[in-house]
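Summary for the steering committee. The consortium agreed at its last meeting that each partner would contribute one worked example illustrating the joint modelling workflow. Our contribution is presented below. We chose a case with several input lines so that the handling of multiple components could be demonstrated. No manual editing was applied between input and output; the record is shown as generated.
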Amino acid sequence: MNQETLVKVDQLTLSFEDDPKKLVLDDINFELLAKENLLILGPSGCGKSTLTHCLNGLYPRELDGELAGEVFIKSKNIHEFIHGEVSHSVGVVFQDPETQFCMYTVEDEIAFGLENKGILPSEMENIIDHVLELVNMRAYKNRIITTLSGGQKQKLAIACILAMEPDVLVLDEPTANLDPVATSEFIETIQHLQQQKDFSLIVIEHQLDGWVSLIDRCMMLNNQGQIFYNGNLRDGINVHRHTLEQQGIWIPMPAKLALEIENQADYRFDTLPLTVDDLAAHQVPIPVRPTRIKKSNTSLALKAEKLSWAKKSTTIIDEIDLELYEGEFITILGANGSGKSSLSKLIAGIEKPTKGSVYLYEKGLNEWKERDLRMKIGYVFQNPEHQFITDAVYDEVAFSLRVRGLNEEEVRARVSVILAQCQLTGFEESHPYTLSQGQKRRLSVATMIIDDQSLLILDEPTFGQDANSTNQLLSLLKERNDAGTTIVMITHNMEIVQQYADRVIVMDGGEMVLDTSPNELWQKSREQLKRWQLDIPIQIKLEQRKQKDVSYVYS
Amino acid sequence: MSIHNLNPSIKAITIILCVLLLTMVFDPITPLVFILWIFFVTIFVAKVRIKKFLLFLSPFLIFAVGMFWTNVAFANEPINPTDVVSLFGRNIPREDIQTALSLSLRILTFASLSLLFLLTTNIVHFILSLMQQCKLPPKLAYGILAGYRFLPMIKDELVLIKSAHRVRGVNRAKTLKEKVRQYKRFIIPLLASAIRKAERTAVAMESKGFTGSRDRTFYRQFKVTPKDWLFLIMMLSVLVTLITIAWQVGYFRWYNGEI
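What follows is the complete predicted structure of the assembly.
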């Protein structure tokens, strides 16, 4: 194997101007060899993106702060590169699919990088066709970028980078905004590319299901921007299993299950299993997770009849009948654009249906006064910032109580209870925008439960959150649910469905194609689930694998 | 000749020159004939759908009619009060009508010239051409292009924020003061996300090797060909001919700052 060193980072230390004492990166040392795939694991806010900016030449030129140490790309110090030249060696795919393009159509976007590099216009067409072929998007050459799905946009982002033929590809949480099916497609594309092209890979992630087989080496960063492990991924997870959990890093689901097994049964894995196959190879009982018992004695909370919604003559929601009962935990699943969000907005009374009607406690939604309705139904939008209207966390939660005219003493009592529940005590005076992602999310939930709303609807609340804040949010929701609140949650995360939902609703093309329990959903054929862009949770996969093995042994 | 495929920069220069020439003219007949010529070019040569063209023109049409009416109704003291024309059963001095007509036709010519440009030009191509023909700095040009992409995103986001605030129980604003307060509340999340988006896009552009220097190649090349000059000459010569005729016949008037 070629042992040429492509990237060498030597004692890199960095701090920003606004807080010079806090080191974002603290004495980072590592090397990347040719054709090597390196994974950088770390919790959100550990300086991963800052490290990316150091590698692609953005820092120190654009840095407002202090940088010490050296970065070498192909043995050349990054200071010696002329402006823009680093991009010929290091290409980056960023997290947000919406904001990494500046042109209108797919071909123009790929050409943009080539133009910067000064490639002759006569050669561009061939390169563009070639890289689109590589990511299997040849048919989209003339498409307008905004009409692509998130997964396609990320693949286009790789194509743009590949066109510039870099030696190192840096992927900065490339799948954080994608649904599970698009995520696995993206990873497959990368795998496929590595067979055809020579490049090294740096994957920066906090969610590593799917990447495991691709990775040669792993580096782990902690909150202080220090490397605490550099070596084989398997050993790293094995040794640092507890640190990783504390830091809020997503460890692979099979490893997480294995840890639960260790806790429940008296068994210790010498090496933690990272894939379903690894785990299935162990002769251990699968941990029994408390499955939720369907509540039966509940009364009808919300009823929708023949609900239809059309926008400019395209049908978005098509004749849906739905009944929600008090205390249920319902998840709405389906591909992007299948009508999940639209359905949720219709039943929350945020959008008005073109046909059909919704009844909340047997009274039509249009008969409810807006203010009374909002005291019954809470709706948590995908981006928490959209819902903030005041300048302090306390005022934010108190807002609707004050609108109702409660006296300040009562307001204070209720707000402090809710803030404690949402683990936001101590942040009363902070501006909502200065909170962390997880705190913002919990604050947006807090504002929606302050009136003791009996129905809470959430649009992908765990999207892009790290393991800790996801767990905190889910336990908060579970607590509310146990107290009787009906929860309706749009999600792509099948592990959540398996663990929390009483009932699943699957949307496809504006129609409700399934309304059943999670366990029955997993019984559907693989093709069927794939068409709905759904995956099976790891635990179910494992059970199915074991059953197959058993029948294999006895046949 | 396809107006759509003309070099956008030359097309823009043609339009600007026409407008500049027209600002000096102040008789009703020259712009009227020139408007008919623009209509002809837009509808028969550029093949813009009549319905679309009229739809875009209609606000200007209303504005022009209003201009005409106010100028007739609130005209200056006429020099020749006896020379009148009967209109809507009233006697109106001929020169007032002339001034009013000139002004409103002026609006219509400028509007239809701009529409001829807007309806036949891809804005992205226009900016790329400005960069190649008119030395617009790439830093500015790609900045505009990236910003232009944001517009629909910002619009969608505003709709989202509005409904998100409604769910919070924010009352519908009734008085002007409440409305101003409400918009202030919309602005903060909107700006916060716009700034974040802009920063991310800038980082992504730079990591694709964009430096803002003029030293770059172009995938879509815009060249100036003889047919672009032909268009420029044709449009200007029609206008110059009309002005010359007006001069010869004697109804030509310079613009003297009338409103």
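The interface with chain A takes residues 124, 142, 145-146, 149, 152-153, 157, 160-161, 163-171, 185, 188-189, 192-193, 197, 200-201, 203-211, 213, 215-221 of chain B (CB under 8 Å). Residues 138-207 of chain B form one domain.
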